[in-house]
Amino acid sequence: MTITIEQPQLDVVPESKVPAGGDPAELVLDGGFVVPDANAFGKTFRDYEADSERKETVEDFYRVNHIQQTHEFVSRMRAGYGRLDKTEMGIWECIELLNEFVDDSDPDLDMPQIEHLLQTAEAIRKDYPDQDWLHLTGLIHDLGKVLLHPSFGELPQWAVVGDTFPVGCAYDECNVHFKYFEKNPDYHSPKFNTKFGVYSEGCGLDNVLMSWGHDDYMYLVAKENKSTLPSAGLFIIRYHSFYPLHKHGAYMHLMNDEDKENLKWLHVFNKYDLYSKSNVRIDVEKVKPYYMSLINKYFPEKLRW
What we know:
By secondary structure, the chain is an all-alpha fold. It contains 10 helices and 2 strands, in the order ααβααααααααβ. The chain has helices at 55-68, 71-81, 91-97, 113-127, 132-140, 214-224, 231-239, 243-246, 257-275, 284-298; strands spanning 88-89, 303-304. The protein starts with 54 loop residues before the first helix and ends with a strand. The model is unreliable at 9-30 and 35-48 (pLDDT under 50).
C-alpha cells in the first residue's frame, strides 16, 4: 500500500509558548485547535516545578527513571519484549486494557489513558480531516502502556512512561530533572558519556537506543505486525515522548534526512498530544465505529504483543 502524505505547512521549530501575560487564544495551531491556558490542575503545561498535587509523584518518578535507564537495561528489555510473545489481541482490546492506568510521569492529567487517547485523536481529526493515518496515530500512540498490566510483566512506571532520551551517549542537560542522571552508571562511563557515545553523526534515530518504555514498545508492535501506517506515523509513535528533541532541539546530530522530514509531523502531533489534555470526556461509543474502520485499514485483526 502506498500512502501519500500532504506535508504540513509549518517550520521545524521548537514548541511555541504563549508570552507571559498574553492571551492563549492567540496561539492557534495549524488547523484551528486553540491551546488552553492551563492543564487539568489549573497550572501551566509541563511545569515540573509548580506546586501541584502531582509534583512530588512526578519528581520521584524521574529520579528512579534516570538512575535505572542504562544502556544495558534498555538492550535487555528491547530484546525480551521484542519477541512479541506475551499475547495476541486487537488494537481496541488493548485500548480497553488502559482504562485502569494513570501516568505517574504526567504533571498535566490524572485521568485514565483512554480519555487522553480519544482527546488527542479527536483534536487532530478536526484539524486534519484528510489525514486519517494521523487520527489513528493519535489514538494508538500510548498503547505501549499496557506494559503496566500484569499480563505484560507489570513493569514499574519508570520503565514504561515519561520523557524518553537516548542511552549510549551523554545525557543532554535539557532532560527534565537532569540532576538525577548523575547516579546512573552510564553517566560516568567513558564509553557512554561523550556527545556521540557509541553512535556517529547522522547515524539515524533507527540506530539509536532510546530509554525503554511504551513508545519504543508500541513502535516494535506496529512495525513487526506489518502495520501500513506511513513512516511518519511510526516515527511519531516511537518519539512522541522524546521532548529533548522535539521541544529543545537536542540530539539532532544523531538524525538523518528521513528523521528530519518526519520531525515536521511530530511537531504537528505533539501540540495535540500535549494541549488536548482536559477533563472533558469523549463519547466513546459515538466515535468507536470511525476508529475501528481505521484500525481495520492499517492493522491486522489480531496483533502479536
